[in-house]
Amino acid sequence: MTVSDPASIHLRPATDEDRAFLFRLRREAMRPHVERTWGGWDEADQRRRFEETSDFAAHEIIEVGGEAVGCRWVRELPDAWELCRIYLLPEVQGRGIGTRIIDDLCEAAARQDLPVRLRVLRVNEAQRLYRRLGFEVVGETEFHVLMERPVR
User: Residues 61-100: pLDDT tens digits?
Assistant: First the structure.
């Protein structure tokens, strides 16, 4: 799949029917990072954690040309927008989809004079993308890097 037309990238609200797809996304996008961080992937434990920590109604499905390829979950806080989750299937990563979705989010937050915050696993190379998009490191935890894109 090529993304030659940015207009072919759409977000739609997630539905209950998307639950299995959302977990598949987590597995495919995050498993290598989880394994590098914690030494393994326990399918049942990961599914339980995903169910317990996800606000499924707040997720949006990223579609390209009508095909589901990822998801986004944004939480609007009083002082910032938090990008809680952005997952793309590995086969579509590196094609500008994430850049477009994140840029659009940052522009919308900036119109409200709010920064965008996120946290990313230390081992996740997506940090390079976030830095390229103007995010700065604002803190660290044992496993995560905390980043923020200030209002421009």
Answer: 999 999 999 999 999 999 999 999 999 999 999 999 999 9
Structure tokens that stand for 15 in this block: 């539905």
Residue 133 DSSP one-character state: T
Pair 29, 75: CB distance under 8 Å: no
What's the token pair of residue 71? 């998801």
pTM of the predicted protein model: 0.90
Strands 67-76 and 81-88 turn out to be antiparallel
Alpha-carbon dihedral 140, 48, 19, 95, rounded to 10 degrees: 30
Q: Which amino acid is it at 99? A: T
User: What burial class does residue 63 get, using C-beta atoms within 10 Å of its C-beta: 0-12 exposed, 13-18 middle, 19+ buried?
Assistant: middle
Cα distances (Å, whole numbers) of residue 118 to 64, 67, 80? 24, 26, 10
